[in-house]
Amino acid sequence: MEVDKQIIKNLKAWFFNYFQTLKHGDKNFQENISLKEKHTVKVCKEILNIGKQLELNDYELRLSEIIALFHDIGRFEQYARYKTFFDGKSENHAELGVRVLKENKVLNRFDESMQSLILRTISYHNRAALPEDETDTCLFFSRLLRDADKLDIWRVVTDYYNRNNGKRNGAIELGLPDTACFSDEVYQDLINKRIVDIKHLQNLNDFKLLQIGWIFDINFTPTFKSIKKRHYLEMIRHVLPELKKFSILYKSIFTKRLLPLTKLSSLQLFPRNRDGYLSF
Predict the structure, then answer these.
(1) Buried b (16+ CB within 10 A) or exposed e, 47-67
(2) Range of the domain at 24
(3) d(CA 94, CA 88)
(4) pTM of the model as a whole
(5) CA dihedral (40, 61, 279, 3) positive or negative
(6) Do 11 and 127 lie in a common domain?
(7) Nearest to residue 192, comparing CAs of 163, 213, 176?
(8) Are residues 171 and 82 in the same domain?
(9) Is 55 left (phi over 0), alpha (psi -120 to 50) or beta?
């Protein structure tokens, strides 16, 4: 199915109208809704930037942009309903987003196969690991989204950690206490090159370590180059305590994780129909 510029324009109009209906309440509430608005816009730019470097065609880039546009649509209702972005204290924002899109029939202009691809990709974007029993196409777009999403979350948190006003935002910190210790479970996850289990988080230091550990889930070379160029890991390390354990851990991660896990350069690897479109 063709995805033209007008379709993208109409979907963006729906998106901005939707979150505006939830943008009410006190200044703090509005700021956190705006935070997710900006994040969505940035993730759209990140996914297009990665996709262009991977030489995706216009159709694939537009599909990527749609997925990025709606990947966090559940965050707005989540914060409006629960006043938190912590799934563990509310509900899974990816699954909530899928429900929002279905209830509002946002994707009904697409055929069932494309709707399914978009919804599945969104539903997977916050999982600890992607499902093994999925199509190569869905896994590709899921990895693309996860890379773009992480790049902008790193922007958000590093800007926050280096803020000048000292004002704390419990929504960004997930309500975690800012104490000097760290969880041994989190340390063990990272020293064993595993993505940190969010259930192990006990304080803000654990959350920062989890963010450093996202490097183990980076999929494409352009993403990895952006991380190195922007110095995200170094900035997070800078706001962690000067403990020998942290130094050893950081050095281990930074020196051994030099190349992305996945080296897919183009969707030409994936099956297409006679019109050249992806087979879902």
Answers:
(1) bbebbeebebeebbbbbbbbb
(2) 5-146
(3) 13
(4) 0.89
(5) positive
(6) yes
(7) 213
(8) no
(9) left
